[in-house]
Amino acid sequence: MTKDKAYEPFEVDQRMVAHSNYWAGEMGSRFYITLRDKKKILGVRCTKCNKTFWPPRTTCVFCFSKLDELVEIGPYGTLETFTLVTYSEPVHPRKAPFVYGIVKLDGADTGMAHFIDEVDFNKVHIGMRVKPVFAKEKKGNILDIQYFKPI
Amino acid sequence: MKRNVAIIGGGQTYHAARRHDVNQVEMTNEAIRRALDDAQMRIDEIDAVLVSNMEFFEGTHMTDCWMADGSGAYGKPGIKITTGGTVGATTVCVGAHYVASGLFDNVLCVAFEKQEEGDTGAILSSVAHPLWGRSLAGAAVGYFAMMGSSYMAAWGAKEEHSAMVAVKARQNARKNKYAHLKLDITIEDALNSRMLAWPIRMLDMCPASNGACAMILADEKTAKDRCKKPVWIRAMETAHNEQFELDWRDVKTKRPIFSKVCASRIYKKLGVSDPAKYFDVFEVYEPATWAELVWYEDLGLCKPGEGFKLIEKGMTNIDGPIPVNPSGGVLSTNCIGASAMLRVWEAALQIRGDAGGHQVPKDVNRALTTAYGGTNWAVMTALSKTLD
Amino acid sequence: MTKKEKELISIPITVNVPYRFAAGKYMTKFLMELKNNGKILAIKCPKCGRVQLPPRVVCAQCHVKNDEWVELSHEGTLVAFTIMYLPLTDPTTGKPHKPPFVYGSVRLDGATSVLDHLVNIEPTMDKVWVGMRCKVVLRPQKDRIGDLSDIRCLEPLPGQKKPRG
Fold first, then answer.
1. Taking CB atoms and an 8 Å cutoff, what residues of chain B touch C125?
2. Where in the sequence is the domain holding A53, given as residue range(s)?
């Protein structure tokens, strides 16, 4: 038997590109439109469970009731947890360093993940009170809240 | 099976090209609420929730996690299943295994697709091997076109035969209030529709639909206590094809093709010798007209090479002796992740006598459903009215 | 007050993921022989004798290791085809294949498996048929990259006519 010829391992670099368009539905649209046009943040209330959810949804995760009672939440909130991002990756929404945290808006029972800017990296802490800064040019997406900052 | 499993309820959405009024989970929730109502069951009686759709078609992964509120999965066991086009049927199989094992009594199976939201062509091309065929990967239409051309060359079928399938599907869909493409078309319309890839024309292909289906499976005791018309899952089968081997389109191939292997195994389990007589109705997975003709032959409803004669003689019409796809099939509604579950659910409706406008006009005691996964494996499910 | 049509929001998202794909031993040998020497290699199962394309390590039917390499002819027979009228995008370049074009499935002489590729022929039904003899056309060696596109297309062998019937 002849000895098999050796081949260098062959690798190729490719990309996978896919476009999609997420429809927010009627309730989701009311959230985005109210944020864009009125700078107000909406959650949805389950009267049975006495909970207010953000983002608004049409079914209660706990009791499976249909939900339709939109209520204003925030705009102030409390930082529940955070991280200081110190490395950059192409998929990151921003270049490091930046603070990213979960804000529980007043009146809501669930948190919202967002950027925390205009903050001293040494002073950011759990329990910190924050408020939203709205984008000047609004586009009908979650970045109409540009970021949160300490009160 | 270790324990008998019944379908005790189900529901579907009104399938459509556009559903901007709901997001993915809200759309799916419509089918789930209908299924719970149909089974007269509350979500807290459900022991496990299984969710399925096509991987990444909407640009979203881990949709089971996105859906935990609307699917009712919060706090419950369950998994996400993705087996391509077969996924809805595979999810029913997994659900049936859950119940048959004795570990769960009531399992909710959920399937959806919101096709308008994603770039299905681009995502489907990732099914092709990066170095073997991806540069040529396009859409399912090319594969079914080659199936059609080899079928015509092998058996002498004409374009008129595929047009007959196109017409049957859309005329049946007109009787199904949930179907997407309810078209009052003639054979001439089908033959004059735009050529996409010879011999596949516009009306030979399925639409891109938005929709969902949900089904509730239960053990024998629950089914008998709670359900007036349980439909029993008698056998399930899955068979894979060989990677890279595209000769499944070649109707004369001698190789054991996944669809034929799957059929022969499920028939053996049930002791079926003449499937056209044994089953009263069929719901097959036909993204293209030619696929339906090939199913006739692969399922043994006729001899090889005679599939096109079945449609020619009207044998598979809704009122024919071997009704195939009275619902309108995938050709009329293709919310892909849900399409294979819709085959099972539509077959169950036929057995219950609850199909409404598209109920076949005869006693339905047994039904068989099929599905393709990337046209590389098949899943089949056999249902019956009684347990004997 | 007139009722305004309800506005519904959608959010466009593009996912663009880079990845590095390792061809593996068998595919590497196939692609390197194609790229460097213009050879089309297949693999033969020691048990069932099927000559498989592309070469892979295990015969799916017999569950045994494939290890006999076979050089295939560059000629074969068309077993299926379509004339494509849709401008399908080549996902690896993002550029469309300009329709109409013929896309076919050829069984190269000596192979069990078929190979799907573009067929360089006028896209009319008189010019293409199942059973047509074809040959593969390779890219010039300097342009080959180690991918199935190093086979540029299939081309009909000269001197054939479509059979009647």
1. 198
2. 25-150
CB contact under 8 A, C97 and B195: no
A2 lies in a domain?
no
Chain B positions touching C93 (Cβ under 8 A) are 135
Neighbours of chain C (3+ CB pairs under 8 A): A, B
Going by pLDDT thresholds of 50, 70 and 90, the confidence category of residue C1 is very low
Distance CA B179, CA B209 (A): 10
Interface probe for C, chosen from A12, A21, A33 (most Cβ of C below 10 Å), is A12
**Closest CA relative to residue B51, chosen from B19, B21, B83:** B83
> How do the domains of chain C map onto residue ranges?
24-156
CB–CB contact A15 C22 (8 Å): no
ipTM above 0.90, yes or no: yes
Chain B CA closest to residue A66: B70
Q: Which residues from A are below 8 Å from C66, CB to CB?
A: none
Residue A68: CB atoms within 10 A of its CB come to: 11
In 3D space, the residue among C41, C38, C65 whose CA is nearest the CA of residue C55 turns out to be C41
| Chain A interface includes C116 (CB < 8 A) | no
* DSSP secondary structure of B294-334: HHHHHTTSS-TT-HHHHHHTTTTSTTSSS-B-TT-HHHH--
Structure tokens at C119: 């067929």
User: How many other CB atoms are found less than 10 A from the CB of residue C130?
Assistant: 19
Residue of chain B with shortest Cα separation from A19: B119
Report the alpha-carbon distance of residue B377 to residue C6 in Å, rounded: 44
Q: What is the pLDDT along chain A (151 residues), one digit of tens a residue?
A: 445 678 999 999 988 888 899 999 999 999 999 999 999 999 999 999 999 999 999 999 999 999 999 999 999 999 999 999 999 988 788 999 999 999 999 999 999 999 999 999 999 999 999 999 999 999 999 999 999 999 9
Beta strands at B106-114 and B48-52: parallel, antiparallel or unpaired:
parallel
- Per the prediction, chain A carries an average pLDDT of 94
Q: Is residue A35 part of a domain?
A: yes
Put simply, the answer to whether A21 touches B116 (Cβ < 8 Å) is yes
Is residue A20 a part of any domain in this protein?
no
Of the CA atoms within 13 Å of residue A44, those in its CB half-sphere come to 19
To which H or E segment does residue B155 belong?
helix B140-155
Q: Do B26 and A25 touch (CB under 8 A)?
A: yes
Determine whether the interchain pair B59/A22 forms a contact, defined as Cβ–Cβ distance below 8 Å. yes
C-beta atoms of C27 and B131 within 8 A: yes
A14 found inside a domain: no
pLDDT tens-digit map of C34-74: 999 999 999 999 999 999 999 999 999 999 999 999 999 99
Across the interface, do B74 and A17 touch by the CB < 8 Å criterion? no
Number of B/C CB contacts below 8 angstroms equals 123
pLDDT tens digits, C93-128: 767 778 999 989 999 999 999 999 999 999 999 999
Pairing of strands B195-197, B210-219: unpaired
**8 Å CB contact of B20 and C118:** no
Say how many C-beta atoms besides its own lie within 10 A of residue B351's C-beta. Answer: 24
Task: Determine the longest span between alpha carbons in chain C, in angstroms.
Answer: 81
Tokens of C113: 């498996």
Q: Which residues contact B362 (CB under 8 A, 6 or more apart)?
A: B280
Q: What is the DSSP string of B208-255?
A: --EEEEEEEEEEHHHHHHH-SS-EEEEEEEEEE--TT--GGG-TT--S
User: Which of B57, B116, B149, B377 to probe by mutation at the C interface, max C CB count within 10 Å?
Assistant: B149
Q: Are B353 and B359 contacting, i.e. CB atoms less than 8 angstroms apart?
A: yes
Domains of chain B (ranges plus CATH)? 5-120+208-226 (3.40.47.10)
Which residues does chain A have within 8 Å of residue B49's beta carbon, measured at their own beta carbons?
A: none
